[in-house]
Design goal:
This protein has about 500 residues and is α+β, with helices and mostly antiparallel strands. The chain has 11 helices and 27 strands. It has 3 domains: about 260 residues, Thrombin, subunit H (Beta Barrel), CATH 2.40.10.120; about 90 residues, Pdz3 Domain (Roll), CATH 2.30.42.10; about 100 residues, Pdz3 Domain (Roll). Helices cover about 20% and strands about 30% of the residues. Strands 21, 22, 23, 24, 25, 26 and 27 form a 7-stranded antiparallel beta sheet that branches. A 6-stranded antiparallel barrel has the order 1-2-3-6-5-4. Strands 7-8-9-12-11-10 form a 6-stranded antiparallel barrel. A hairpin with a 2-residue loop joins strand 18 and strand 19. The N terminus and C terminus are likely disordered.
Amino acid sequence: MPLPRSSIARAAVLGIATVLAAPILSPMADAPAYARGAPDSFADLAAKLLPAVVNVSSTQTITAQNGGPDVGPEVPMFPPGSPFEQFFKDFLNRNHRGGQGDDQPEPEQRLQSLGSGFIIDPSGLIVTNNHVIDGADRITVTLQDNTTLKATVVGRDESGDIALLKVQPDKPLPAVQFGNSDNARVGDWVLAIGNPFGLGGTVTAGIVSARGRNIHQGPYDDFIQTDAPINRGNSGGPLFDMDGQVVGMNTAIYSPSGGSIGIGFSIPSNMVKNVVAQLREYGHPRRGWLGVRIQEVTPDIAESLGLKETTGAMVAGVNKGGPAEKANIRNGDIILKFNNQDVKDMHALPLIVADSAVGDSVPVVVWRNGKQVTLTARLDEKPDDVQDATATEKPKVDETKPTDISGLGMKLAPITPDLKDKFQLSAKQKGVVITEVSPNGTAADRGLKPGDVVVEVQQAEVSTPADVQKRIDAVRNENRKSVLLLIQRQDGLQWVPLSLTGEKDKQPG
């Protein structure tokens, strides 16, 4: 029996009826949008695709270490959402309850993780999520006909949560092809195939709910959101379009209960395809690397630098000897374009850089001193660590030799040996240290605290409180609404805009 039309399709049809009944106001009026109904059945497509989707089972040996009544078992680190996570919680609770002061060593435990994967080459290459196999001692793949094969890891990408496996089949295996995920539009039908709960091949249908989702799982978040039901065990399974091509790899769900509530996330196939090609050739991802730390361009920052739009990524640090330093990219530059692609915000830049080829020389357009400057950067291979411009302050100190910075609610002092010791500053630290912040002042509103160091004001270095005051006065004379400070904290540099309007705090000097 044909499937009923979806509510989305019905709504669109009703909308068409309304538009057609309405008077035509202009020959240039937009034509009504038509929505295609759901297929009568997904059965033929599912039958074609199911043989290429596999179950991935991985096991890990855990040895609990009991250190006495106040010390629980040693906790292994699992990625958030890893299928190992719940198994280990059960294991931890069971052993911790029974180990009160018992000095006997705990027996080894073997934890099993069930996930999904899909075959991309008849020779036995299989793609899955890295978190499905991370830390595993043994990996086995079960085909649709229940054939079980031992798998080896060709390569893993921890940042992107992608892994490439290899099995040795007796005959060529059915494989699927990557599609172009850029063509997947919100509202398109998709099929998710996987192995939830180890039940065997399972097919669910839905639509693309959103594009470009950032769920804060890593620096390369660019997920496709779908309402096709995805449950535990679907991790690593493919998301197909109606042509039977892979447009995503199912990776995560949003759910308070652990089951599907219609919010699932898939890594776009273009990203998976690119990483898999690198894993296949090099055994590890080989992404482009610029060598900068970045932060968001806020309206205050944009205004203080004369930038009309809140766009781009602000450079909050340049790695010594890296591609950015060699390209003369500076602290305080706002990267507007990279490799001829617009940088809409700070989250877009890591994706664009990572997709650029190592060794390529690419144009970089930055905003500097009130105008656009075009530079050329030759990309290196990305190191394992990726930093961003975040800030967490920990100093708890008293004021020392304070000099008031009028109207901003903070006091500064030159960096002396005593202050270096008190604030635990590095021996080579330059700038002016903040010794006091008024709780009701502008500086406090922006999270500045004693021990933070002002390194630059309006992209110019400062070494005394007088330098800071002079540059702030110059900005005020230009009738700007905010002034931009480069702040050194214990975990790195960050640009901080301070409002020059509505200043709450007028401390005596």
